[in-house]
Structure formats: structure tokens, C-alpha cells
Amino acid sequence: MAPRKKPATKYHHGDLRAALLSAAWTAVTKKGLESLSLRSLAETLGVSHAAPAHHFKDRNALLEALRAEAFRRFADAIEAGAKTGELDGMGVSYIRFAMEHPRQMQLMLREGETELGPEVMEQSMRAWQVLVSAVATQIGPTRAADERELHSMALATWAMVHGLAGLWTQVRLPPGVPKSGPDAEGLQRRAIATLLAGVAHPPRR
Amino acid sequence: MAPRKKPATKYHHGDLRAALLSAAWTAVTKKGLESLSLRSLAETLGVSHAAPAHHFKDRNALLEALRAEAFRRFADAIEAGAKTGELDGMGVSYIRFAMEHPRQMQLMLREGETELGPEVMEQSMRAWQVLVSAVATQIGPTRAADERELHSMALATWAMVHGLAGLWTQVRLPPGVPKSGPDAEGLQRRAIATLLAGVAHPPRR
DNA sequence: TCGTCGAACTTGTCATTGCCCAGATTCCTA
DNA sequence: TAGGAATCTGGGCAATGACAAGTTCGACGA
């Protein structure tokens, strides 16, 4: 039977750590990072205000774990988007993830107040590898053999999709620019296509 | 002489509002947004903990004023960078501002928890206009006459520089990518140039 | 079987912070 | 110069993160 039974009256919660992470994820999704409080989480889960401290050293430790989870899902999304072999598809996945999880994106991007955990490093490197190989396919084996060229183009592509994601999730776009829907996606695809045209006809160095 | 004299013993501070803004700016630069507290600001300036409330309704109001200041300086930087007429130069100014003021950038980008103030709107529209006219110069009057085309290219350019700025200020870049210095700027310029090549040879719609 | 030991959780407490209120002080204008 | 408005002070409240010391529970070994 279930190794973790949690009758309401039980002293031990069963799996408080996982429960905290899950509750924190939805809380961040709904109310944002700032308003996430350990005490309110504890109350939600019906444990005392000090209970979370036994699973996360402090608030930042919880956020770090959340960030790892976000990176994991993000890398998954990128990888799935690249399955088609189209660089374009990966970019769209990137942007879509950002638009669907803006708060998590914000969490992922918070500049290193704490060192990045190994989990986060691993997942972000995974995403980077996916990007690089998609770009390699795009530019063909000859150019891809030049590692400087390859990385340069990968960085440009990354910047483009990252920028598009940032514009749509964080910036108040000028009037007339569609916030969402097929028009928005069309604009984004067009921007990516423009970059890819530049990648195909690279500027003289 | 100085219209704002502030002997230590004076009951009225003289220009507490400006002093708060200035102190907040440097505090954000040094310690980041999160750790900015009204009470510590008040203590720094030698006033009581409730004094700031008479100049800023609440913490968010102070942040909004700070944000307006940031946008003002940002728009100035963009405008100066575009003076050369080179789209390229504007992009570099954009990225440089972000790299020199990462915390302010973070403040500027916080998605609208509060409505954007008129000052912020005005300054960001100013920056957008500068961008659009730089792009118009880039693509020539014929293509620029098509407003859809013009805005589309402007958006792509914006996304590129915005993305580059984000990568360098918020993201842990893969090993081998220079964090700063001429090499970093070279990579950024190369990415922009690649996009501009695409802008010059637009993909078929 | 039983003791004991550690992990999980509790209550209690403290410092910090944002915000509100009542009152004191100073400034300015009519 | 009188009175009102702006500015600032001090006190206080509730929420929060962090810490300390005690309590419950379960597992493991003698």
C-alpha cells in the first residue's frame, strides 16, 4: 500500500518536501514570486510555520529547487520542439514556454543571487546542446565544422528567441502589436525567419 | 546659494523626495530590488521611518518613480546611440545600457503589477520611435513605406538586441562565451549583423 | 521486546518590514 | 499674524523569515 499515508491528524506529513514544491509552483503561477511566503505555504498544507525549514534551509533554497524544476520542464519543451528537426520549431517552443510560464521564466532568469545548482546547470546545458545541434542542421555540416561559426550562429538564434520571449512576456509592446493569438505567433515566426535568412546569407566578417 | 540646505537638525529635510530617489537608485544598484526597504532608506537619510510615506504612497510608488527615471536614462542612451544613423550603434547602446544597469533593467521589465505611469509610457514610446526610424533608414524608404513591414523589422531588431541584453545580463552563458570585453561586444555585433543581413534579404512571406 | 536515536514537526520568540494613525513642528499664504 | 497645509515624528499592528528548544514518530539494533 501507499508508503506515505497522510491522515489529517498525522504528526508527520508524509512527503512535505514534494507538497511544498507543488504548492509553491502553483502559488508562483498564480500570484508571482514576490508574494510567495513560506508561512502561507505551510498554512495551506496544514503544517506549522516552521515545518518548511526542515526541507529547505531558507526561502532561497526553496526557490532554487523550484528553479531547477522550471529548467527541467523548459529543457523538455525545447527538446520536444526540436524533434521536428526544424530550428524554427524549437524557437516557437521556447517562446511558447515563456508565454505559458512567465513567472517561472522570471524565476529562471533571476541573476545569480545564489550559485546555480548542479541540476539547473545540467538542464540549461541540455537545452543549449539541443539548440546547437539544431543550428548545426540548419547551416549544414560544412559551416558547422567551424566551431566559432557554429556557436556564433547559435548565440544569435538564442538571442532572437530569448528576445522575442522577453518582449512578449515582460514588455508593454507598442499599440498595434498583437499580444497573443496567431497574429502574434506569425510576427514571431517572421522575426525568426528574418534571422534565419541572415544565417543563410551571413554578413561578411 | 543652494536652495536646499539641510542642516542635520532641521525638522524639514529640504528635498526628501529627491534624496529618497537618489538613495534608492544607488541602493538598487548595489543590493538589488528585493532588499530595498523604505525603513532602511529613511534611516540612511536620517529621517523617521514614516517620513517616506509623505512623498510616495507606498513602496510600489517609489519603485514606479525609480522606473520612470530608469526609462528616461534608457531612452536617452538609445537616442544617443542612434545619433550616428547606424542601426548597429543603437543596438550596442541598448545592450551596453543593460549591462551597465542590470538591476534597473530588471526594474524596468517587471511586468505590470501596477499600471505604467505616463512618464514611463512616454519614455518607452520615445525609445520605440527612435528604433523605428533607425530601421526605416536601414531598409530604405520604399520598404519603409509599408508600415507592416517596417514594424515587423523593427520588432525583429528589438527582439535581437533585447535578447542579447538578456543573455548577457541574466543568463549564465555556456562556457567559452566571453562575459564582457571586446570579444563579447564582437559577438553581439556579429549577431546583430546577421539579423541585419536577414533584414536586407528578407525571407519570402 | 525494548530502548534509543534521528528525522520530522511543534510552539515560542525575535528582528525586519510595510503600512496606518495621531500628533508635533514648520512653512506659507491670505 | 492667524490659520491651514505640508512635512515629519513616534507608536503600533500584522506579516514574514529565521532561529531555538521541545515533542512525536518510526526504524533499527542489542
Question: Which properties best describe this structure?
Answer:
Tetracycline Repressor, domain 2; 205 residues; DNA-binding; 0% strand; mainly alpha; 8 helices; Arc Repressor Mutant, subunit A; homodimer
How would you briefly describe this protein structure?
Two copies of one chain form a homodimer. Chain A has 205 residues and is mostly helical. In chain A, 69% of the residues lie in helices and 0% in strands.
Describe the structure in your own words.
Chain A folds into 2 domains: 14-56, Orthogonal Bundle (Arc Repressor Mutant, subunit A); 66-200, Orthogonal Bundle (Tetracycline Repressor, domain 2), CATH 1.10.357.10. Chain A is elongated. By secondary structure, the first copy, chain A, is an all-alpha fold. Mean pLDDT of chain A is 90; it is low at 1-9. The longest helix of chain A is centred in the middle third of the chain and has 27 residues, at 118-144. The first copy, chain A, contains 8 helices and no strands. In chain A, helix 3 (59-82) packs antiparallel against helix 4, helix 3 runs parallel beside helix 6 and helix 6 crosses helix 7. Chains A and B meet through helix 6, helix 7 and helix 8 of A and helix 5, helix 6, helix 7 and helix 8 of B. The structure holds a DNA duplex (30 and 30 nucleotides).
